[in-house]
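Anyone opening a protein record will find just a pair of labelled lines. A complete record is shown below as an example:
=====
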Amino acid sequence: MTDFWILSAVNAHFAATGAAALPEELTITPAGGAGKVSYMAALLASEDLKVLVLLDDDRAGRETQKDIVTNKLLRETAILFVSEGFDPKPSEADIEDLIDPVTYDKLVADTYKVELKGKKLVLNAKIPRIVKRYEEAFKALGLEFYKTRPAREFMSLIGADPAKVLTADSTKRFQAIFNELSARYEKMKNVASFR
């Protein structure tokens, strides 16, 4: 759900400010994780809907992409990885990685200030995905990290004060993803079948 929250909030902000938002006829639909994307893609495609899939670029995402293509649920061109919003592309990326790391750090600090009071978080910079870095750092302190907290704060701030959560680099990454999804959608619109 956090991916849905973040993408929806950014898309609504872009649409309201005249930036590159997704086409109005596209609906962002959460699937409940990479393991459920194949089922959701099959269900939507069986209804002759035009389906684009945005996946985290990790092992589970790559396996899901392979499964969807191998089983001819969708064409490979209907699947996009989050890492395509970066230049250069990282080895792995989640939706949260589109947010500036300093901004994400502040979101975590603000939403976990009670639990982290008097404690020092040590993030492992070798872990490519920011959520995984926080999960490991929290675990080392005997705490559990829930990415829903910073995601909710992100949604709240993007509605009230977008400059606090959307840096120029972050905006560029989200726009790259939205532009690519929009371009692929435009190519699909006149094609009879995507499978």
Remarks:
- The helical segments are 2-17, 34-46, 59-70, 101-111, 113-116, 130-140, 148-160, 168-188.
- Residues 122 and 184 are 40 Å apart (CA to CA).
- The first strand starts at residue 53 and ends at 55.
- Residues 168-188 form the longest helix (21 residues).
